[in-house]
Amino acid sequence: MWLICAGDLAVLNLALMFVFYLRFGGVLPAANFGALVDTLPWASAVAVFLFAGLGLYERNLGGFVPVMRALIPAIIGVSLATAAIAFWVRGFAFPRSVLVLGAFAQFGGVLAWRGFCWYLDRWLHGRRGLLVVGAEETVHPLLEKLLDLPERLFHIRAVVDPQDPALKRHLAGADAVVVGPGVPPSAKAKLVAACLEAGRDVYLVPELYEVMLTGARVTELEDLPVLRVEDIRMSAGQAFLKRAVDIGVASFVLLVTGPLLILVALLVRLSSPGPVFYLQERIGLRGRSFRLLKFRTMIDDAEKETGPVLAQANDPRITRLGRMLRATRLDEFPQLLNVLKGEMSLVGPRPERPVFVDEYTRANPAYHYRHLVKPGLTGVAQVYGRYTTSPEDKLRYDLYYIRNYSLLLDLKILLRTVPVALTPSAARGEIKEASDKTAAIHALMSGARETAAGGDERKLAD
Questions:
Q1: In terms of Cα–Cα distance, which of 330, 351, 346, 329 is closest to 420?
Q2: pTM for the model
Q3: Rg (CA), the chain
Q4: In angstroms, rounded to a whole number, what is the distance separating the alpha carbons of residues 396 and 391?
Q5: Residue 377: exposed, middle, or buried by beta-carbon count in 10 A (0-12, 13-18, 19+)?
Q6: CA distances for 365 relative to 185, 248, 392, angstroms
Q7: What is the number of other CB atoms lying within 10 angstroms of the CB of residue 420?
Q8: Per-block average pLDDT, block size 10, for the chain (462 residues)?
Q9: Contact 138, 180 (CB under 8 A)
Q10: What is the rounded distance in angstroms from the CA atom of residue 185 to the CA atom of residue 64?
Q11: Is the CB of residue 260 less than 8 Å from the CB of residue 274?
Q12: Which residues contact 286 (CB under 8 A, 6 or more apart)?
């Protein structure tokens, strides 16, 4: 990643210098060139920070499209920071035309550089074959998610039960192994050991209790090494700092977007009968209920006949303006008032309605851990998950956030919310047709059963 980072900085700086050179016809005035030289080191530092916060220095398993999405807010942020730094360093000696044209040149240059790196990585590593290990009753939902991975990058070679004697043979032909939930600890330990010995990458879907172990510290009882799992609640200092950031950022955003929100309120009032705002009971910190505030995006009294139900992708109850507000996330902005009241935070698990909290808690008692922190406008599940992500997988994301909370993690999530908000389809991803996916899963599971049957026959023969 250091090579990619160095390439990013080289492209960003060279693109700006090239536009600068064109702007002045190859003759650079000393004052303007001095502004450029003084600005580039600071702008480069901001670029590294933004690129890292938006995940551009992490290995992406979702193809090249997420990289393109993240580059848009990254370059916008770099351009705004460059303008501010240039003004601070040398006043108006940095031409505005260079800033505008430079942003386009930087985006095109970095996109080309990242595209080259992506294709080079594909050429070096090829299409990766995945071996999926899991019991038949738990592996089906996992296969649905894996089949949404880019086909040009991954393909599922086989699905194997953890107790299948043919597991080692399949391991030899795989590039990486995905271990589903529900695999017994003893079988999981043997599988990880076999993968490490064979030099294969392992992707474990953690059990919920295993998520709580992340960040555990090694200590000792006498001479016995043990893992110390500390309390997952925030300290008083963390809670105070988080609250201060919530108030500051929420106040600033409401001040800046105030005219736009007033316009949205008028449009909601004029576009369909009913109130401007929609108040809904949600469950927050320590299981207390509060009234969540949103711009109304559905027809008035939408649940009169259906009762509490989750919105569907093409829900007929959503108004025409409501679809636009949901796509741009503008309907969520009034929740900044919930943040100022202390009922929510900028970052945290998304609050759910009482009826769904009861349903999810009955299915998984660990669900109540989400209420150890304030709910948020955005969260890890919203940034990394999809619209169709299951409640259990969202819970894994939320528990990871609670277990690993830091102000830096909050900033990282806020940054990564930007490309998700700018591209409504980002949260859903490109999902294959249900019929194609069902046929593929059936074929994979049939192959797994045949392999298991063959193994049983060999056992009997022996």
A1: 329
A2: 0.76
A3: 26
A4: 9
A5: buried
A6: 21, 35, 11
A7: 21
A8: 90 90 76 79 92 84 78 91 81 73 92 89 79 79 77 79 78 84 83 83 82 75 76 83 94 93 91 87 93 88 61 70 84 94 94 90 87 92 78 87 88 87 54 56 61 49 43
A9: yes
A10: 35
A11: no
A12: 371, 372
Rounded Cα gap, residues 139 and 448, in angstroms = 11
Geometric angle at alpha carbon 420, from 70 and 378, rounded to 5°: 125
- Phi, psi dihedral angles at 103 (to 5 degrees): -65, -45
Tokens 């599971």 identify what position? 445
CATH fold group of domain 128-205+432-461: Rossmann fold (3.40.50)
Contact at 8 Å (CB) between 365 and 336? no
Listed as own residue / partner, the contacts of 20-29 with beta carbons closer than 8 Å and 24 or more positions apart are: 20/95, 20/98, 20/102, 22/101, 23/95, 23/97, 23/98, 23/101
CA atoms 169, 60, 108, 37: torsion sign: negative
Answer whether 130's CB lies under 8 Å from 154's CB: yes
Q: Are 373 and 339 in contact (CB under 8 A)?
A: no
pLDDT computed for residue 426 by the predictor = 46
Q: Specify whether the CB–CB gap between 8 and 51 falls below 8 A.
A: yes
- In what helix (H) or strand (E) does residue 157 lie, and over which residues does it extend? strand 154-160
Q: Is 329 left (phi over 0), alpha (psi -120 to 50) or beta?
A: left
Which of the 8 DSSP states describes residue 28?
A: -
Task: Tokens for 111, please give them.
Answer: 């996109």
Q: Decide: 53 and 412 in contact? Cβ < 8 Å.
A: yes
CA-to-CA dists, residue 130 to 91, 159, 175, 227, angstroms: 56, 9, 6, 32
Give the residue from 177, 171, 181 showing the smallest Cα distance to 140: 181
DSSP secondary structure, 227-252, as one string: EE----SPPHHHHHHHHHHHHHHHHH
H or E element in which residue 225 lies: strand 224-228
**Is 130 in contact with 157 (CB distance < 8 Å)?**
yes
Domain with CATH 3.40.50 in the chain: 128-205+432-461
- In degrees, rounded to 5, the angle at the alpha carbon of residue 386 between the alpha carbons of residues 381 and 391 is 60
Q: Using CA atoms, how far apart are residues 314 and 318, in angstroms rounded to an integer?
A: 8
Burial of 145 (0-12, 13-18, 19+ CB in 10 A): middle
335: left (phi over 0), alpha (psi -120 to 50) or beta: alpha
Q: How far apart are CA 171 and CA 54, in angstroms?
A: 34
